[in-house]
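Question: Hello, beginner here. Any chance you could explain the protein record under this note? Any guidance would be welcome.
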Amino acid sequence: MSLDFTQSFSSNFWITARGNFTYAESKFEIVEEPQYKEKNLSRVGLPLSQTWGYIAERLFIDQNDVANSPVQNFGLYEAGDIKYKDVNGDGQITTLDRVPIGFPTDPEIIYGLGFSTGFKRFDFSCFFQGSAYSSFWINSDGSTAPYLNGQQMLKAYADSHWSEDNRNIYSLWPRLSTTLNSNNNQVSTWFMRDGSFLRLKSVEFGYSLPKKLIQKVKLNDTRVYFSGTNLATWSKFKLWDVEMGSNGLGYPIQQVYNFGIQLIF
């Protein structure tokens, strides 16, 4: 859907606006897959970019909690590691306990809104863009994982991770380790994040100099302006720019500011 609006209130005041909204979903109707007894493993009826993973309940409180919980078949684990839900109730956590989690990785909603207006010699324009109904996962096996491959620790992880001194079972990061922890590296709801956002993509403000002034230097028109891109973002995710997804320490999306002058001879 796209909507356009144009209105001239007078020779000195005008406005134009445009908005667009796209909703697109997908689903598997027929899939060449095993005849699963567990309906949670079938892709039929679900989006093409749907992710399967484990439901993370919390972190293990202590070794007694580990000993009295279903066995997790992902290597060694201990207090402070992620505790997963036994979906099928067989007393162990295996690939049969995976379920569809989160929204598709491809946004189902894309939208934008922009307008331009002018009053006498001043003009102003801006554009917003956004997306919704998508999920991404913090990369727990690299990228931002503390200590792995010489990686430094982000302040957010330093402020909220499980330790013997801080046994917070809902910390942002589980028990720290200098090696890859297979148990904590499983795709799960623990590192799942909402990819929705609204961004102020661009703004421009301009002023056209009076004709009497510029004609003296034989110019037909002169306009000075300020513009900026990627000026603000609204999102539930706060660790880094949400459009970077799991690549939190990659090259960031840049804010750009420009001052300029347009001369027409």
